[in-house]
Amino acid sequence: MATALTTSAAARPTVTRGSAVGMGAVLVAQLMLVLDATIVNVALPHIATDLHFSPASLSWVLSAYALAFGGLLLLGGRLGDVLGRRRTFLAGVAIFTAASLTGALAPWGWLLVAARALQGVGAALSAPAVLALLTTNAPDEYARTRALALFSAVSSGGGALGLILGGTITETLSWRWTLTINVPIGLVVLALVARLVQETPRRTDRFDVLGAVTATGGAVALVWTLTRADSVGWTGPQTLGGFAVALALFALLAVAERRHPHPLLRPSLLADRRRIAALVVMANVYAGMLAVFFVLASWFALQLGYSPLRAGLAFLPLPVGVFTMSRITPRLVRAVGRIPLILTGVGLLTTSYALLLRLDAGSTWLTGILPSVAMLGVGAGLTFMPITATVLDGVPHEYAGSASGLLQTMQQLGGAIGLAVVASVLAAFHVDGDFTAGGHAGIVAGFVLSLLAFVSALTLARRR
User: Fold this and answer.
1) What is the pLDDT of residues 5-61, one digit of tens each?
2) Which residues have C-beta within 8 Å of that of residue 24, sequence separation ≥ 6?
3) Chain centre distance of CA 196
4) What residues are paired with 431 via a beta bridge?
5) Cβ proximity of 420 and 298 under 8 Å
6) Which residues of the chain have pLDDT under 50?
7) Distance CA 223, CA 243 (A)
8) Cα dist. 391→364, 377, 403, 408 in Å?
9) Which residues fall within 8 angstroms of residue 285, CB to CB, at 6 or more apart?
């Protein structure tokens, strides 16, 4: 299929060993960013003890990263389009690396939270450039499809891999090493990408200041409201007020983008029905996955009594399934197309959550959880790459960063929704001494979110 992202053979960049290494470094950076959304999860009890966090404030170790990351992605994507994607990527990785070192050395809780927020800023600058660099540096359509498959594998499997690494590092070393490990990785990525990856041209477009303010403000308000909804109440004035502010800012953004000659979020990106449906699928898939990750991590610790290391290893079949499917999915896309793979993948995700509903107090990992986690990995591996390709289909080169930022914003907002919903459900159905009651309700929440993703995916099958 011809797209605006597909250039003529003469104009495409050629693959060399150096450029392949550079693209590998870009993917490593993406893995590092995704890992940090979950790598500290199993370390939270140790962090609370060492830095004297209260139960209410401990959640900000996770929320500060999600808030800055999700809130600034659209801005980061557009900055890459205007200033140059490699330049923006390097700036983001440098900020992320410095913030990781600050957090690892933090003697006070407030400094760790500030470092996590700064990590989110760096991630928001670099993450949209990752996908844009991969697609615009690919020499042909097959290489582009392979790059999208690897990106999707990293994005979907990285969260589970973060739980594994977090448990291993926390138990064998210290929670501080979950952040320290980013420093040497970040320095190597900076060196390789600066030397081996081609820069994209800078643009002379007039920057959309109002769009940047409203998009960032709206996303931050929405993520902030979702992360606090469980603690202040879904119908409380703070929650309702936060949703109202986010809605007002997004409405102002819609008006501003139609009038600006070089908008932050190009309205034509939202004019394609299939792109909208794919974005909705992505948000719901990510929401369901993070909700079920949270429930399973709690199930391992509270119901099965697993240590952080054993709990992390219990997720191992998931990234194995994702990374295995990443090698097969590009050939499947060429053979059967994107839509059948999306429907199959989301169907497998939904089925895996339905199987988890059979869990009870006597269930073991081998008989009750392993089949579902393995199916979840295969489903995610089938789903993410064709969704990503559908969102980017037909996007001009100069707006690839904006489209990438939009896609990853939907991921982050979906993740925030999933975590907020499952936290509320667990609290509502909590029974002292019995995690299964709340755990079942949490899995139902993930199942419903995944079912919404499947319904949205069905609309992709309709004729244009």
Assistant:
1) 433 334 444 456 666 787 788 888 888 888 777 777 777 778 888 888 876 577 778
2) none
3) 26
4) 434
5) no
6) 1-14
7) 10
8) 39, 22, 7, 11
9) 346, 349, 380, 383, 384, 387, 414, 450, 453
Q: How many residues does the chain have?
A: 464
Distance between CA 11 and CA 189 in Å, rounded? 27
Q: What are phi and psi of 431, to 5 degrees?
A: -130, 125
Q: Under 8 Å CB-to-CB from 336, ≥6 apart: which residues?
A: none
End-to-end CA distance of the chain: give it in Å, rounded: 15
User: What's the CA gap between 66 and 79, in Å, rounded?
Assistant: 20
Q: At what angle do helices 370-392 and 317-336 cross, to 10 degrees?
A: 40
**Nearest-CA neighbor of 80 among 95, 71, 91?**
91
Q: What is the pLDDT of residues 203-212, one digit of tens each?
A: 666 667 787 7
Residue 316 and residue 275: Cα distance in Å, rounded?
A: 32
Buried residues in 160-196 as b, exposed as e (16+ CB within 10 A): bbbbbbbbbbbbeeebbbbbbbbeebbeebbebbbeb
Question: CA-CA distance, 49 to 51, in Å (whole number)?
Answer: 6
For residue 207, give the DSSP letter: P
How many C-beta neighbours within 10 Å does residue 439 have? 24
Report pLDDT for 19: 65
Q: How is 357-407 classified by DSSP, letter by letter?
A: TT--TT--IIIIIHHHHHHHHHHHHHHHHHHHHHHHTT--GGGHHHHHHHH
DSSP 281-313: HHHHHHHHHHHHHHHHHHIIIIIS---HHHHHH
Q: What pTM was estimated for this model as a whole? A: 0.79
Mean predicted lDDT score pLDDT of the chain: 81
CA distances from 80 to 87, 133, 199, 322, 463 (A): 8, 10, 10, 29, 34
Distance CA(287)–CA(422), nearest Å, equals: 9
Return the exposure string of 39-48: e unless at least 16 CB atoms fall within 10 Å of the residue's CB, then b. bbbbbbebbb
* Amino acid of residue 281: V
Burial class (CB in 10 A: 0-12, 13-18, 19+), 338: buried
Nearest partner of 381 among 314, 312, 418, 331, judged by Cα: 331
Q: Which two tokens stand for residue 391?
A: 């969102």
